[in-house]
Here is the input.
Amino acid sequence: MSLAYKLEAATYEYRSFTHILNTEDNISYLAYGVEVYRHDYAGYEKVDSLRGITTKAEKMNRLLDLLNRAQVSPCHFRDVVEDFLS
Here is the structure.
């Protein structure tokens, strides 16, 4: 197997996480974010994350499905999230 094939064989896994966000009025709410993991011949590593995407679980599930199905490259991930939310 060539090194070129190994470099192209990367896959991406998008996972949600929850966290608490606070407004300027000290109101707290549960928000969802996304973490991006890269799997390749060298192993497994977290390459990016984005907090505060949505407060709705259903919306997060649709976004994760899109990101994982399309195998969106991490360099485009933030643009895809922005487009999804607009």
Remarks:
- Residues 80 and 86 are 10 Å apart (CA to CA).
- The chain has one domain: 3-85.
